[in-house]
Specification:
Blueprint (H helix, E strand, L loop, with lengths): L1 E4 L4 E5 L3 E7 L5 E8 L51 E5 L9 E9 L18 E10 L4 E10 L4 E10 L5 E6 L2 E5 L5 E6 L7 E6 L3 E7 L8 E8 L10 E7 L4 E7 L5 E7 L6 E3 L4 E3 L2 E7 L2 H16 L13 E3 L1 H4 L5 H13 L4 E4 L27 H11 L3 E6 L3 E3 L3 H5 L18 E3 L5 H17 L4 E4 L21 H19 L4 E4 L9 H4 L4 E3 L6 H11 L8 E6 L12 H8 L3 E5 L7 H23 L1 E6 L6 E7 L5 E8 L10 E2 L9 E5 L4 E5 H6 L2 E2 L19 E9 L2
Parallel strand pairs: 22-23, 22-31, 23-24, 24-27, 27-28, 28-29, 29-30, 30-31
Antiparallel strand pairs: 1-2, 2-3, 3-4, 5-10, 6-7, 7-8, 8-9, 9-20, 9-21, 10-19, 11-18, 12-13, 12-15, 14-17, 15-16, 16-21, 17-18, 25-26, 32-33, 33-34, 34-39, 35-38, 36-37, 36-39
Helix pairs in contact: 6-7, 9-10, 10-11
Bound molecules: (2R,3S,4R,5S)-2-(hydroxymethyl)piperidine-3,4,5-triol.
The site of (2R,3S,4R,5S)-2-(hydroxymethyl)piperidine-3,4,5-triol has 11 residues, from loops.
């Protein structure tokens, strides 16, 4: 998959569908040539290097009028030697100079892909699934070795990149900017697509035209955040969900990040992604090394849906890993929205019994089970059962739940502490705070300094104790505030710029240790809903709580946006009570079920509050999900109608072989005497006859008819509804099952 033209020093990565090309310049820097639809390997390619003599304001190389880094497309640009765009690398030496210049030293081909120690990353299971080339670069003046790693995957149209730095000199160096990837694309005629929002409205799809200057999204909150996601796409203006060219960029990381597109004054586009340089400074002593997180770049000529499918395939099978990767996820019930902190063992067992009756497979006990935790002011950090609520402890409760024939799951917030807790009283120095300054709290809690091994050890010790004694099959790992006053008491002044990243390494380490000790543990990540919903977390936790907003109509947007980069298998989605806790909206229970079942499904409900009729619906929903969950998790996902753009939210899951599909169509507000509507489907076999079963009607049609003429929608308008012919009200949703007839 990787060829090298040794004479022209051109590297061509191709899996037959996409190509990525770069070359070694005369100056020995690495230059970018091409990224996109596959090119045949016959070419010479160097004609793609565009150079011009632009003497005014340009700094050029002695004796070579056409070579200025300002005008050359590069792979990993540096600061200070005639390029005035933002660099991928900025490194300062003890002399105070931040100028660097990388020169090509050689390359190494690797079958498959190397593991990134301590960091989440995509992986291979067989060597021939991917090929990697590592390009050795060096700043000879500083003796800094820089290894640029590129992996191309055989079955997915993606390139994974990361960078390793080794200080081979005798002095100290400071990395002030070390992006995971950078690429200079030949034109800038794109729109950027980003996923932005805030708590309870995460990952709204925002599209804007690129213009000369910078377009960026970032986080400096210590976690990837509700506000911006470490993902963005660049699409052509005429690219839609179904067609056109698009590039997707995703960072496999959960901390501070920067995603930036810079259009220069010659319409060349520099794209970069990595740890946010703001607040970052990594000290590299002699022989020290540093590895960036991994960035994944995808190209699709099949529209935004095509891009998402590439991310989904890669992240589902070669980022998520372990025991749960390919297993059907249990249908769970979580007590949080029903009880918050106010419960005792009897309430929980009543909950679980009712859930069991409905076919639900796992009971999850959320916040409030430990220490003095009766509200959010106390107890965080004391991971021992509150015996007033749970007389037999977690062991006893877990046993009773297991005896009902259910699995038991438990909530933790490992990274946090209340000052009013035994843990804090024992270790007041364990929190992140800047000496001499007030420490801000968030939800009355403080952030434990996970950059310190002894802190991670202390939390691991408590969790290990509980997990090894009680039968706990799942944990919900929450994280409910951003980091402020970032400073670690354990590090000297010249390493304080490392703390945000070291904190993330500590979080990853705790995940890894727990998974090593309890390989069958299912972890669901959470951060006040979706505040750390990113590719980094997926490596440890194959599912995440998508948002604290559980209203089905709000979730149309949240799940639609999330699907741009993340597969359905990782989107925790639950049916919750009405009126909805967050927005007070009343939606039909069928709609809540339909929206939630295209995710990792569950309930957030006191089921005893439901009528007998509603309980029957719950039983059917659970049975439907169990029957279809593997197909939903593993099928190809297509967004059909955007809830950001109209009155409908619609999406489809289709089996990879086109043998079946399921379309979920939700109309937000009802309408009077509305139009006839059809919805063209995707991913079917054109010559195959299918049976389509909606809520009220069923019929047969061929794949080409369904994809070209469209699925006939059943959304009844008032005025067209007659007795027995459907309902008309706000928030109606229909699931259409489309199955090949044999
Ligand atoms: C925030 C989470 O997103 C909720 O689901 C719940 O677990 C609460 N924290 C508990 O404090």
């Amino acid at each position: 998959m990787i060829t090298v033209d040794e004479r022209d020093k051109v590297f061509h990565l191709s899996n037959g569908r996409i190509s990525y090309l770069f070359y070694v310049m005369d100056t020995e820097q690495l230059g970018h040539l091409y990224f996109g639809k596959a090119l045949d390997k016959r070419g010479k390619y160097l004609h793609m290097v565009e150079k011009a003599y632009r003497p005014m304001t340009t700094c050029i190389r002695e004796g070579d009028l056409c070579t200025s880094y300002e005008h050359l497309r590069q792979e990993y640009p540096c600061y200070g030697t005639s390029d005035y765009r933002y660099p991928a690398l900025e490194v300062q030496g003890e002399d105070g100079s931040s100028i660097s210049s990388l020169k090509y030293q050689g390359y190494e081909m690797i079958k498959g892909k190397r593991h990134l120690a301590g960091l989440p990353a995509t992986y291979t299971e067989e060597d021939d699934e991917a090929a990697t080339v590592e390009i050795m670069m060096k700043d000879t003046w500083r003796n800094l070795e820089v290894v640029l790693s590129y992996t191309i995957f055989r079955d997915v149209d993606a390139i994974a990149r990361s960078v390793r730095f080794v200080n081979r000199g005798g002095g100290v160096l400071f990395l002030d900017r070390a992006m995971s990837m950078s690429v200079d694309m030949p034109d800038a005629d794109y729109q950027s697509v980003q996923l932005s929002g805030a708590w309870s409205r995460e990952r709204s799809v925002k599209v804007r035209d690129l213009e000369t200057g910078i377009t960026s999204v970032s986080s400096m909150r210590g976690h990837s955040s509700h506000h911006h996601n470490p993902f963005f796409a660049l699409k052509r203006k005429n690219t839609t969900e179904r067609s056109g060219e698009v590039y997707g960029f995703s960072l496999v990381y959960s901390g501070n990040f920067l995603a930036q597109a810079e259009v220069d004054n010659y319409q060349v586009l520099r794209v970069m992604l990595g740890i946010n340089p703001f607040g970052f400074r990594w000290k590299l002593g002699p022989q020290d090394s540093f590895t960036t997180p991994e960035a994944v770049m995808v190209f699709s000529a099949q529209g935004l849906n095509g891009m998402s499918r590439q991310f989904h395939r890669l992240y589902r099978k070669r980022l998520a890993r372990g025991y749960w990767r390919d297993r059907e996820r249990p249908v769970l019930i979580n007590n949080w929205e029903a009880t918050q902190f106010d419960f005792d063992e009897n309430d929980l067992l009543r909950f679980a019994r009712k859930a069991k009756e409905c076919g639900i497979e796992m009971f999850v006990l959320d916040d409030g089970w430990f220490g003095e935790r009766n509200d959010d002011k106390k107890g965080l950090g004391d991971w021992k059962a509150n015996r007033d609520k749970l007389p037999d402890g977690i062991e006893g409760l877990a046993e009773k739940i297991e005896a009902l024939g259910m699995k038991f799951g438990l909530w933790f917030e490992p990274e946090m502490v209340n000052m009013d807790s035994d843990f804090f009283r024992d270790h007041p120095d364990y929190i992140i705070r800047t000496p001499g300054r007030d420490a801000s709290h968030g939800r009355n809690q403080y952030v434990l300094d996970f950059s310190r091994k002894e802190v991670v050890d202390a939390v691991y010790g408590q969790m290990y104790e509980l997990l090894s004694k009680a039968k706990i099959s799942y944990i919900k790992w929450d994280m409910n505030r951003s980091i402020s006053e970032c400073y670690s008491a354990a590090y000297p002044a010249d390493q304080q710029g490392e703390i945000f990243h070291r904190y993330m390494l500590g979080v990853y380490d705790l995940h890894e240790r727990l998974l090593q000790a309890f390989p069958e543990l299912l972890i669901e990540s959470c951060s006040s809903g979706g505040g750390r919903f990113d590719a980094g977390m997926l490596y440890y936790a194959p599912q995440g709580w998508t948002s604290d907003d559980s209203d089905a109509i709000e979730r149309l947007k949240i799940q639609y946006g999330t699907s741009f980069s993340y597969p359905l298998s990782c989107m925790g989605a639950h049916v919750s009570a009405c009126p909805n806790e967050q927005v007070g909206r009343r939606t039909p229970i069928e709609t809540r079920g339909n929206v939630a079942c295209t995710g990792a499904f569950g309930y957030e409900h006191d089921l005893d509050q439901l009528s007998d009729e509603e309980i029957e619906i719950v039983k059917k929903q659970v049975a439907f999900y169990k029957e279809n969950r593997r197909f939903i998790a593993e099928g190809d996902f297509y967004r059909l109608l955007s809830p950001f753009e109209g009155n409908f939210g619609a999406w489809e899951v289709a089996a990879e072989d086109g043998s079946r599909a399921m379309a979920t169509v939700t109309r937000i507000l009802s309408e009077v005497n509305g139009p006839y509507r059809r919805l063209p489907l995707c991913g079917l076999r054109k010559d195959q006859e299918y049976h389509i079963a909606g809520r009220y009607n069923s019929y047969d049609a061929y794949g080409d008819e369904l994809m070209q003429y469209g699925l006939i929608l059943e959304d009844r308008s008032s005025g067209s509804v007659t007795e027995g012919n459907g309902r008309c009200e706000d928030f109606l949703s229909v699931v259409y099952e489309i199955k090949a007839k044999f």
